[in-house]
Design goal:
By secondary structure, the chain is an all-alpha fold. Helices cover 77% and strands 0% of the residues.
Length: 264
Amino acid sequence: GAAAACGEVNKMYYDIMYEELELAAAAASSDSLTVVEKAGRGGPPRGVLALEQNLLTKRILVPIAAVEDTVGKEAVAWRRGPLAMQPLVTHILSILQGLLVRLSALHAVVAQPPIVSGRFSAAALTQFAEPLREASRASMYASGDVLNAAAEVLSVTHDPKQLAERLPALDRSVTACLDARVAFRVKFWATRAKHHSAAKTAQNSPWLSERTLDDAVRYLGFIYATGKTCDHALLLARTVLADERLQHNAVRHYTWRHWVSHLP
């Protein structure tokens, strides 16, 4: 449950961040309304105002704590034998705890007020986020897909047939995530190079002349935080894929199917 929730929340923060950038651009076009005022007008709340209160605690921390409690009890009751707690469980819990910290940092960046210059501008959206929207969405959603695929594997650890189907799917999601991440980095650095080149001319690039320090702090902080979240998503997936017990159970299905196919 916690791994799947991490995947959902990860995608949610991407959408919320772009809503925040859009709200900042709208507020910058009108001195009479603040970002918060605009978020509360003309429909349901948007941006961070739309986030469920105590989101990370309810969806991730509470499920992790429940599993930790169970693991603690089982570790005392069954130290050895077939009912003993598998090492994979403690490894996954450790990674999920780290992932929760990364998502907390992502939340802090998305909800970051303009504490340096006192305001956001439209530059973060128009000069940076919009050119990178497609690539950044593909990368962040891919890391969420990795977490969802890992959760699907962890939900069928005792079913050889399901494992034989879902482990390859998890492996494919890891490859897709790495490809999306590389594509985003290429696009990101091309955009940065364009801005740096423009800054050397007599007329500075719009990104440098129109942005505030808070635009740079929030958006670049968001990029960094999403990268760290992706690191933990991939670590979780690779830990699951490397587990010998899961691989053995999946092989059992293929062995049984091969044996049945050769029956007279």
